Amino acid sequence: MSAFFSILGIGLIATGVGFLALAALGLWRLPDLLSRLHVLTKADTAGLSLIALGAACLTGTRAEILPLMLCVLLIAISGATVGQLIARSVTPRGGRS
Amino acid sequence: MIAFDIVLAVGIVFCAVCALTRRDRMASIAAFIVLGLLVALSWIRLAAPDVALAEAAIGAGLTGALLLRAAQRLGPLRPEAGGRLAVSTAIVAAGLGCGLAWVFAVAPAPVVYAPLVTERLEMSGVTNPVTAVLLNFRAWDTLLEIAVLVAALLLVSLLGGRRIVPAHLGELTLPFARIVTPVAILIAGHLLWQGSSAPGGAFQAGAVLAGAMIGLVLAGHAHTGAAVVRSALILGLSGLAVFVLAALGSEVLTGHFLGYPVGAEKIWIIGIEAALTLSIAATLCLLFTGLGQRKVR
Amino acid sequence: MILDVFSLAALLATLAALPRLVFGPSAEDRIIAAQLAGTGTVATLILLGVASGTPALYDVALVFAALAAVAGLAFVALRGGRT
User: Is B211 in Cβ contact with C70 (below 8 Å)?
Assistant: First the structure.
């Protein structure tokens, strides 16, 4: 039971860190601003939520899982909001005017 | 973990160098924001979570917004500016650094403070040693720090200047306003309450609250009219007033300036900290938005 | 311990945003890089908290997460939104 959860947690964390590294690579390699905006959402949603899920598997108690889930929620909303706003501010006629 | 510390230290120095040397305001500001993130991580590695919390709240919420606002006021960097100024600043900073290093090397360093605090911790009414020092053993220092914050607020109000009127960002920011801001207010309350037993406290809670409010102002979801600014100014000044009243009250009750009645220390500390949280949040928010009457972008 | 390795990897991923931050070319690129570094810092804090068994670090991560959008909002709002 606990061995299963620790292996699952390590696996989830490894995948999440992989997403973070992928996002950093994308920020480095992608050609223009709008493509680079994509990597933000990958790291914010996939990377961080996998890491937080893995951490939740490894720590256990409910009082420790709540802040982890709140972190995921807050970062996902923040990243999406800032990404959309920046995209809209550089697109000449994109979105509402 | 030594590899982690080395990478972190290299990253901090690199960010600091970038923030100082890039000839582009946005690059300097972004490097300074990331510097704040890394410095908060380094406080964690130095086992000082209270300082890390303060650095996180100030660095993530306030510094970036304040610097961006200042950059907007100043306009783009002139290419020829600042050669001699940079050299003289570097000389002064290097002199200050050498002086500090000399004092640090020469001064005898008897580590008497930590054991003294640990010994008398149960007398303070709280179990977090940092809060015990800040709000009980050395409450006088904290009172003066709040006075400094009030002085900064009064200076900004004397300077006048322009009140900020941000662009209306529209419906995209509604999820931020409806979810992130309420959660941030909850986090501020959590930090305030747990400051008596774990890392947290009035300054961290106030900074989180101020960051959330600045986010609301920037997204165009908060009123920034003259009446609101006046109420915020009164709220900002009220922290010092409550602290001074508490000090005088404890003088009357116990005969000691800021010596709280025995058995009721925790209630006094939490009460003072609650007032300080609101006051610090209002002050920091006003330092960003400004108090001027003219509405100029 | 493998969790220490993961926290180091998360720190490296955070720092990997720095070249884009320094060399731009546009101001938006730099803000995106700073935002990504903020996410990376939250991840690093969570991993440090798990690795050292101190859930108190989650509070610091929570503060960063709650205020992550403020710098980006300030950037867009102060330059006029341009909708």
Answer: yes
Q: Which residue of A has its CA nearest to C25?
A: A33
CA B161 – CA B182 distance, rounded (Å): 31
Q: What are the backbone dihedrals phi and psi of residue B294, each rounded to the nearest 5 degrees, phi first? A: -75, 135
The verdict on pTM exceeding 0.80 is yes
SS (H, E, C) chain B: CHHHHHHHHHHHHHHHHHHHHCCCHHHHHHHHHHHHHHHHHHHHHCCCHHHHHHHHHHHHHHHHHHHHHHHHHHCCCCCCCCHHHHHHHHHHHHHHHHHHHHHHHHCCCCCCHHHHHHHCHHHHCCCCHHHHHHHHHCHHHHHHHHHHHHHHHHHHHHHCCEECCCCCCHHHHHHHHHHHHHHHHHHHHHHHHHCCCCCCCHHHHHHHHHHHHHHHHHHCCCCCCHHHHHHHHHHHHHHHHHHHHHHHHHHHHHCCCCCCCCCCHHHHHHHHHHHHHHHHHHHHHHHHHCCCCEECC
pLDDT tens sequence across C22-55: 887 888 888 888 888 999 999 999 998 888 888 7
What is d(CA C71, CA A16) in angstroms, rounded to the nearest whole number?
25
What distance in Å separates residue B227's CA from the closest CA in chain A? 30
Interface of A with C in 22-41 (CB under 8 A): 23-25, 27-28, 33, 36-37, 39-40
Instruction: Please give the interface size between A and C, counted as residue pairs whose CB atoms are below 8 Å apart.
Output: 148
Q: Alpha-carbon distance B214 to B289, whole Å?
A: 8
CA neighbours within 13 Å on the CB side: how many for A10?
10
Pick among B68, B172, B180 to test the A interface (most A CBs inside 10 A): B172
CB within 8 Å: C41 and B212 = no
Which residues lie across from B162 on neighbouring strands? Answer: B294
Q: Is the bond preceding C25 in cis, omega lying within 30 degrees of 0?
A: yes
Geometric angle at alpha carbon B212, from B210 and B216, rounded to 5°: 110
Give me the tens of pLDDT residue by residue for chain B, a chain 297 residues long: 788 899 999 999 999 988 888 778 888 889 999 999 999 999 998 888 888 888 888 887 788 888 888 888 777 777 666 677 878 888 999 999 999 999 988 887 766 777 777 777 777 777 777 777 777 777 788 888 889 988 988 888 887 666 666 677 777 788 888 888 899 999 999 888 888 777 778 888 999 999 888 888 888 777 777 788 888 888 888 888 888 888 888 888 877 777 777 777 788 888 888 888 999 999 988 888 877 655 444
